[in-house]
Design goal:
With 336 residues, the chain is mainly alpha-helical. Among the domains are: 169-262; 264-336, no CATH class. It is built from 16 helices and no strands. The chain has helices at 6-10, 45-60, 65-77, 82-95, 99-112, 117-130, 136-146, 153-166, 172-182, 187-200, 204-220, 225-235, 248-259, 265-280, 288-305, 310-335. The termini are far apart. Its cofactor is Mg(2+).
Length: 336
């Protein structure tokens, strides 16, 4: 880490620690790479000096304001350094520092390092110490919306943690709906919707509402994997024994889309699952027509609409044939 760009972080007027009188009592501790390192990293002089003093401070166990300021310099140069973040937390506890000021500092760091796990982890610890999540939804919204990265995993993870830990579910569906409206293929937003709905519990009324919501979204963009996955996910939550066939309005909806000529691979995959389920739940003598539908859909998928997964769809068709064959054999044995 560290190169000529270090001055951009600490400033061209940065004064080396070795030239600061208040640090005269500290002997910097150089990094020990051994006598013959396989790869010698070309650290800048600024980077080397900051971390030499950082190692010295940690070695002597010093927890002071100057040590806290040193961690700030070190983390500007390498914001992914776990050891420095951990030591910074130790210093904050020792000094009984202003943790709200630390949150302000972290907002700045996250703005520049929104995909850095260590920064988000440190933020979580500080929020826990304060027992105050009042800034977290706004912070993550800025990371996801204003910074233009609506799929930032770390921001979503932190948002879910804050919502779950401090029971902040109430307005989350409105936020998620806004993101989905802006980008209906935002899988992260659909996942967040499922996270919220799961908390409230999958009552029949809620399931019906979500199915209607999702079908309306699919009507707008039919080739949307995120919406199809969500649709199936909600349908599977209807309780033990509930299958895709348990929601006739959805069955009618997808068959209507298919009859209208749409051949989205996600639509076809849904129909494969639906007709497989129906074929296996009926008497063998009545399953032949449904099985033929599955074989035809698998053929369409493997040769036209989802060729990259050709072997998978061939396997699905073969597996259903084997299942139905076994069921027929068992029925014959029972008759004899």
């Amino acid at each position: 880490m560290g190169d000529s760009s270090d001055e951009e972080y600490l400033g061209t007027d940065w004064l080396p620690y070795s030239a600061r009188s208040e640090w005269a009592d500290v002997e910097p501790l150089a990094q020990d790479d051994g006598t013959n390192p396989v790869v010698s990293i070309a650290y800048s002089q600024m980077f080397r000096e900051v971390f030499d003093y950082m190692r010295a401070v940690i070695a002597r166990g010093e927890k002071s304001q100057r040590a806290l300021d040193l961690t700030t310099d070190a983390l500007r140069l390498n914001p992914a350094n776990y050891t420095v973040w951990q030591y910074r937390r130790d210093i904050l506890r020792e000094l009984k520092a202003d943790l709200n000021a630390e949150l302000d500092y972290l907002s700045e760091v996250i703005g520049q390092n929104a995909k850095n796990y260590q920064v988000w982890h440190h933020r979580r610890v500080i929020v826990e110490m304060l027992n105050d999540p009042s800034n977290e939804l706004e912070l993550t919204e800025n990371a996801l919306v204003n910074d233009g990265d609506a799929k930032n995993y770390h921001a979503w993870q932190h948002r879910q943690w804050a919502i779950r830990t401090f029971n902040l579910y109430d307005d989350e569906l409105n936020f998620v709906d806004r993101l989905i409206s802006e980008d209906q293929r935002n899988n992260s937003a659909w996942n967040q919707r499922f996270f919220v709905i799961k908390h409230f519990g999958f009552s029949p009324d809620l399931i019906q509402r979500e199915l209607t919501y999702t079908m309306n979204r699919i009507r707008i963009i039919k080739n949307n994997e995120s919406a199809w996955n969500y649709l199936v996910g909600v349908m599977r939550q209807g309780g033990k024994g509930q299958g895709l066939s348990s929601y006739p309005e959805v069955v009618a909806f997808v068959e209507e889309i298919y009859q209208a000529g749409n051949r989205s691979p996600y639509l076809l995959a849904f129909l494969v699952d639906l007709y497989q389920e129906q074929a296996l739940n009926q008497k063998v003598s009545q399953s032949d027509q449904l099985a033929r539908k599955v074989y035809g859909l698998c053929e369409e998928l493997s040769t036209k609409h989802d060729v990259i997964r050709r072997k998978y769809w061939q396997y699905v068709a073969t597996h259903l044939k084997n299942q139905l064959s076994k069921a027929a054999e068992q029925q014959q044995e029972q008759q004899h």
